[in-house]
Amino acid sequence: MSDFSLYLQLGLEHIADFAAYDHMIFIISLCAIFLIKDWRKVLILVTAFTIGHSITLALSVLDLINIDKDLIETLIPITILITSIINIVLVMKKKSSQGIILHYALALFFGLIHGMGFANYLKSLLGGMQSVTMPLLAFNIGIELGQIGIVIVYFLIYDIIRRITNLQHKFWVIIVSSITALISLSLILGI
What we know:
Blueprint lengths: L2 H13 L6 H10 L7 H23 L7 H24 L7 H27 L6 H33 L3 H21 L2
Helix pairs in contact: 1-6, 2-4, 2-6, 2-7, 3-5, 3-6, 4-5, 4-7
């Protein structure tokens, strides 16, 4: 297996690791407000998140920034909580389509925070490698592919539940966002 394939696989595995489920919960909270027909918007949203975390991941791996791991581990669930609350507010005000720019900006900004969370993991893998460009690229592509996989699974589940229950989208957003908010609160409080 080439180094590129190895780091691609590690990126995929990292985002899909149920032990690090906060990443999955964040992607779900990003998706919650969207309909299946909005899949292009969601892909752009996930890519904005990837761009954000790629920036801080690179800066952190190159030791250009160094932020306390405990602070980052607290900020990550806060990003989930904020996203979940925004989803609920927008859907209650019937302005979910107007919040797309806000969601893109938040995904990019929150990606910066999540990237620092990925950095410790990737730093431990890279050790003393001379060139980190290829591993960083492969790892980020793996994360992006993993996130797209999470989006696909999310929308498949959403579609099945919607067909079975005939649940209105507004209520789906409230339910999913409430669940992601509660999970993030438990992470923040260490419960």
